[in-house]
Amino acid sequence: MQFNQKINILLIEDEEYDVKRVQKTIAPLSDQIRIKKIVADGQSALEALKKSPNYFDVVIMDYQLLGGITGENLIRKIKEVDATLQIIVITKMTVNITDFDFANRLIEAGAMWYCTKYPGDIEDFIYQPTDFILSILNAFEKRRLLKKEQSSKRKLEQSIEELLQQKALIGESEAMRALRSKIAKIAQQEATVLILGESGTGKELVATHLHYLSRRRFEKFLTINCGSLPHDLIESELFGFEKGSFTGAVEKKIGLFEAANQGTLFLDEIGELPISAQVKLLRVLQDGEIDKIGRTDKVKVDVRVVAATNKDLISAVQQKTFREDLFYRLNVINLYIPPLRERKEDIPLLLEHFFKHFAHTMGVDVPQISSSAMDYLQGFDWPGNVRQLQNVVQRLLYNVDGMIDVSDVKDSLGLAPKSRAAVDSENGFEWDPIHITPWREIERAFRKKYFEFVRKRAASDAQAARLLGLAPPNFHRMCKELELK
Ligand SMILES: Nc1ncnc2c1ncn2[C@@H]1O[C@H](COP(=O)(O)OP(=O)(O)OP(=O)(O)O)[C@@H](O)[C@H]1O
Ligand SMILES: [Mg+2]
After folding, report:
1. What's CA 450's distance to the chain center, in Å?
2. For the Sigma-54 factor interaction domain, which residue ranges apply (predicted)?
3. pLDDT per residue as tens digits for the range 196-230
4. Which backbone phi and psi does 89 adopt, to 5 degrees?
5. Under a CB-based contact definition with an 8 Å cutoff, are residues 203 and 310 in contact?
6. Is the CB of 200 within 6 Å of ligand 1?
7. Ligand 2 mean position, distance from CA 285 (Å)
8. How far apart are CA 393 and CA 387, in angstroms?
9. Is 245 or 169 the better-scoring residue by pLDDT?
10. Which helix (H) or strand (E) is 153 found in, with range?
């Protein structure tokens, strides 16, 4: 408690006699607790508070004022002016001292404390003085803490705003505008969201926006890529385990669902989730409870789930690799991000954005681009979507001095006959030493090339499957996944 701070009081009391009694009661600490203004009615009180915001710390108000705004109504109006203001109510003895309902109404309206005035024949005090003074000090302390909380919240809000600006969703196409407004709306809700879109369209970015625009924004936003972990690890990563629940469980592990409690969990590449984990995920989504390995009682969690995939989940459901009930449970709300080639008007804006961004981080000037190079970039189909465009911009900044021309663009897209980045082309692969391709992408590219290679040499699909040592249904499924017709 702060015994050295000055506390400014607004006193609302219409009886001169009681004003005197309040003054006498706080007299021992009059240096610190200062009645700065005395008004006789609610309206004047509100005017004084509005006129000098932040001047008063504590309001002491009589409950039985004559006319105008009084009682709970006045309490609420004061709190509207400044929610951190603390209100101490003093009431006549006529109020039944066991009337909890009355006390409750005052507290619910926003009062911090209330006391019944001493009988009128006690001239020196309005209430037991140490209690009265202590409650004023408490009120002041409560306000100080609330103010502090408000200011750190403001700072957090500010850094979240900055984060959202840094990670802005660029694009003015009809589709992007619609997407942004849908995100703003959906962020306010609690339902699970499924984000769909080709690789590199911005699914993770959209999930980030959903979290930081929601009421959960001050809590954690955690991400897991369901395709990046071996099947037997993913469940313990998601749901955790108790110490000793299996050999090797020497310590208990908090799963992501528990770690993200109150916040948002982003399940990327949800289509890769193994069936056994799908069952458990469904249970969390339905009951808000996690199945922790080695634990029989329930662990409640409050987590908003956002999932994403670039796979066709409906065909995965048909092929029984994805549970239908889980699909419907995830798909309560879905957000589809169209590929870049279907919103080409966003290309110049994205180019400008990334050129500025990366030139700035690399400490170089934004280069000039010839108009034919610009036309080429705009007309290109961008199979790797925004991520590919972003990589091309980075490559251009690394590789080109001066004006960027069509040949530079083709070079950076890997379309030129002699790519500067080519290091090892013996095996038909061009590995770029500056921009290492993520494993999943290169693995997929390899599978695709090898499948094509084998199919060209096989008389039929059945033979190709046999040569590859795959069962025909698996072979067909993989061809479909690799977009080989
Ligand atoms: N509209 C956009 N405005 C600005 N940056 C974008 C936009 N869309 C995507 N990006 C950027 O492109 C990159 C790829 O986006 P992101 O990782 O969100 O895609 P993704 O759909 O999750 O891809 P994948 O399916 O491969 O995981 C990120 O750096 C992201 O910030
Ligand atoms: Mg992603």
Report:
1. 41
2. 169-398
3. 999 999 999 999 999 999 999 999 999 999 988 88
4. -100, 135
5. yes
6. yes
7. 22
8. 10
9. 169
10. helix 129-166
More confident: 338 or 459 = 338
Q: Which residues of 452-480 are buried (b: 16+ CB within 10 A; e: fewer)?
A: eeebeeeeeeeebbeebebeeeebebbbe
| Residues with Cβ within 8 Å of residue 63, at least 6 apart in sequence | 70, 71, 89, 90, 91, 92, 95, 106, 114
- Quote the CA–CA distance of 269 and 316 in Å, as a whole number: 13
Give residue-wise pLDDT tens across range 3-55: 678 999 999 999 999 999 999 999 999 999 999 999 999 999 999 999 998 99
Looking from the CA of residue 197, the nearest atom of ligand 1 is 21
Give the closest residue to 113 by CA, choosing from 86, 74, 137, 143. Answer: 86
CA–CA dist 420, 343 (Å, integer): 30
The reply to whether ligand 1 has any atom less than 6 angstroms from the CB of 468 is no
CA 133/CA 130 separation, integer angstroms: 5
Separation of alpha carbons 322 and 37, rounded Å: 70
Determine how β-strand 240-241 pairs with β-strand 253-254. Answer: antiparallel
C-alpha span between 290 and 358 (Å, rounded): 42
Q: How far apart are CA 482 and CA 407, in angstroms?
A: 30
The pTM assigned to this predicted structure is 0.71
Q: Please name the residue whose Cα sits nearest to atom 13 of ligand 1.
A: 387
SS3 assignment, position 41: coil
Q: In the prediction, which pLDDT does 39 show? A: 96
pLDDT tens-place string over residues 88-116 = 999 986 666 677 888 889 999 999 999 99
How many angstroms separate the CA atoms of 297 and 291, rounded?
Answer: 9
The answer on pLDDT for 297 being more than 90 is: no
Nearest CA to ligand 1 atom 30: 202
